[in-house]
């Protein structure tokens, strides 16, 4: 019983102590809340702002060593038919997503690189959440979480 309580406390502490992960995610501080338009989703890798349960993006992010790798950028973690890099703001009218994801993975979310991409019109604000299905994609079969709301 005591061990369970200690483990639970540690889990909550760790879960609340990881906002720095957003610095490692493309536009990690500006991910929109698909359940509550106009607000941001503070814990990108979790099912809600209070949940310790990881969403698909969170699981993929953990599998990538908590780095925004090329593979994570190219993945469609929430299964809505839109790849993570596109949901997080990459604009693919001049370069392919593969090229942009490869480029980004080499610079590890360097703020100067991100500013450069914004100035060149290659990066904009995220269009949707990469880990919570918002059913935007053409081939989407995923569903939003059951308690999705403000
Ligand atoms: Ca997606």
Specify the biggest β-sheet: none
Determine the number of helices (DSSP H or I, runs of at least 4 residues).
6
Instruction: Sum up the overall morphology in one term.
Output: globular
Succession of helices and strands: HHHHHH
- N-to-C terminal Cα separation, in Å? 34 Å
Q: In angstroms, what is the radius of gyration?
A: 16 Å
State the assembly state of the protein chains: single chain
Structural class: mainly alpha
Overall average residue pLDDT: 84
Low-confidence stretches: 1-17
Bound molecules: calcium ion
Helix percent band: 25-40%
Q: Total number of β-strand segments?
A: 0
How many domains? The number is 1
Q: Which percent band covers the strand fraction?
A: under 5%
Description:
There is one protein chain. The protein has 150 residues and is an all-alpha fold. The protein has one domain (2-119). It contains six helices and no strands. The longest helix has 15 residues, at 2-16. The radius of gyration is 16 Å and the shape is globular. The termini are far apart. Mean pLDDT is 84; it is low at 1-17. The structure holds calcium ion. The site of calcium ion has 7 residues, from loops.
């Amino acid at each position: 019983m005591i061990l369970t309580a200690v483990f639970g406390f540690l889990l909550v502490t760790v879960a609340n102590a990881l906002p720095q992960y957003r610095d490692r995610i493309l536009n990690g501080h500006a991910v929109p809340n698909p359940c509550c338009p106009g607000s941001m989703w503070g814990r990108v890798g979790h099912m809600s702002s209070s949940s310790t349960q990881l969403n698909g993006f969170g699981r993929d992010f953990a599998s990538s060593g908590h780095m925004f790798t090329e593979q994570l950028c190219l993945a469609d973690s929430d299964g809505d038919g839109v790849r993570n890099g596109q949901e997080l703001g990459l604009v693919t009218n001049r370069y392919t997503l593969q090229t942009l994801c490869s480029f980004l993975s080499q610079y590890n979310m360097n703020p100067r690189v991100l500013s450069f991409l914004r100035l060149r019109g290659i990066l904009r604000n995220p269009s949707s959440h990469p880990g919570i299905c918002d059913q935007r994609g053409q081939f989407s079969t995923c569903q939003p979480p059951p308690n999705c709301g403000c």
